[in-house]
Specification:
The chain is an alpha+beta fold and 195 residues long. The chain has helices at 2-21, 77-82, 174-194, and strands spanning 23-35, 39-43, 57-65, 70-76, 85-86, 93-97, 106-107, 116-119, 126-132, 158-172. Helix 1 packs antiparallel against helix 3.
């Protein structure tokens, strides 16, 4: 019986170390379409499979991209539902009007040409939105007027592509680490009582 307690103690100790050290990953998303200046693109489908950072898991995400004329932002589903969808886009994304009153969960035009932002997911569904910094100052040939300039319906195209790198660090949350430490203390206590 003492041997089983020793094995349990070692396993729990390794789980504690693993929870503290965590796991890191890097994912490259190449050839993301870049909307024309003055317009924004947003994913059609919400991302729903990203767990929230909290008591069980500690998740930190860093998004980087290779085009300083583009911004990337994360919006919630309620914000996506309120966006004005414009003609154009593709199977994965919609073209929408860029609006100054959009509430971003993370990122957005405020990151400027830094081409990076940090984010701690909250477990809620979200959409990814992209835009061009060129259009945010009223430039792009339209004198600052939103599209469509003539009131005619036309489709939008994308102005190029860029790459996004997502780095994520996942470790055990405070509740998991606390629970494992309490289990370890209990197993060590039982081992001491057996001697």
């Amino acid at each position: 019986m003492a041997g089983a307690k020793a094995v349990i103690s070692v396993v729990v100790g390794l789980l504690i170390i693993g929870s503290l050290v965590g796991w890191s990953s890097e994912e490259l998303y190449p050839e993301i379409p870049k909307p024309d200046a003055g317009f924004c693109g947003v994913t059609k489908e919400a991302f729903s499979d990203v767990p929230g950072s909290g008591a069980m898991l500690d998740i930190d995400v860093v998004l980087n991209w290779d085009d300083s004329e583009v911004w990337v932002g994360i919006i919630d589903v309620a914000t996506f539902d309120q966006l004005e969808k414009l003609p154009g886009g593709n199977a994965n994304g919609e073209i929408v009007s860029c609006s100054a009153n959009i509430d971003y969960v993370a990122g957005g035009p405020s990151v400027g040409n830094a081409s990076t932002f940090d984010w701690a997911p909250d477990g809620e569904d979200f959409h990814i939105m992209i835009g061009s910094l060129e259009g945010d100052d009223g430039g792009g040939g339209g004198g600052g007027d939103p599209w469509p300039f003539s009131g005619e319906s036309e489709t939008m195209s994308f102005a190029g592509e860029f790459n996004v790198i997502v780095n994520s660090d996942v470790s055990g949350g405070w509740a998991v680490i606390l629970l494992l430490i309490l289990i370890e203390i209990g197993v060590i206590y039982l081992n001491v009582l057996d001697r």
